[in-house]
Amino acid sequence: MRRVSEATIDAVKRKSFGRDAGLTVRMLATTALLGLLYVGFAVVLLQVLNVGLVPMLLIVVGIAVFQYWTSDKLALAASGAKIVSQQDAPDLHALVERLCALSGLPKPRIAVIPSDVPNAFATGRNPKHAAVAVTEGLWRRLEPQEVEAVLAHELSHIANRDVLIMTLASFFAMLAALITRFGLYFGMWGGGMGGMGGGNRDSNGNNQVPVWLIVFVVSVVTYAISFILIRMISRYREYAADRGSALITGAPENLMSALQKIASGITQIPQQDLREVAGMNAFFIVPTNWRTQVGELFMDHPPMEKRLAALAAISREMGRPVS
User: How far apart are the two ends of the chain, measured CA to CA in Å?
Assistant: First the structure.
């Protein structure tokens, strides 16, 4: 197969962070389905509810804005990550600086997580307010070129503004979850939500379905479908970040090796240590429960074998040998 020239690869690195036509179409289609679902959800709420929706929207908007604006601080605090200076971790800083130069991104803050679990994640509302964190276990277990591939994956998440995308994608899912809880509470205790407790009979005295029950059922259905669609989007973002890493570094095999070492390393970590970081699984490059997940439909990361196969295909596209 004809080898892709270095100049061509460099040009692709700077213009794309992992986009390919098929993946882009799947992401757009899934996002469109999610949008249609949310439009239908909003229409039902507006038709059924007379009051109570605005305060609920304000609460959810407030939560979403707070989550988005403080995403980097929350994620770093939750993981126990500590920001490190160039003096503290010169080699790590050097790798990130090189990748930022290749990708044209501003240098994010760099953090180290005091955990033996090999992993990494990126967070931040935009490239100018971003952070990349790696665990001590990842730094010890991986070769420098593999760490570089992992960092390139995380920088691709930043470049693709995945925090913003996932915050927007989950907005109405949060609202549906909130209404579902309210519906359970008011349904169980016979209360009303925005006037939804009464009105079980029409003007002719016929029984009617309680309004709270209608909203509750619609919310449950919305949450269940959005749960699946959001995870589909999340999986596509991981594929895009994997591709971005391959294009930035020009060496997909390094990320393949890194993913295999991380997955293997996780299996050697005591369960107690894994439980301590389990809350970060949605952020990590490889979730700590990757071996026990059942059903791709409910996974927020693609299955390991599919990620490796996709990277192998990219490697062949670039004219690089696949071992």
Answer: 15
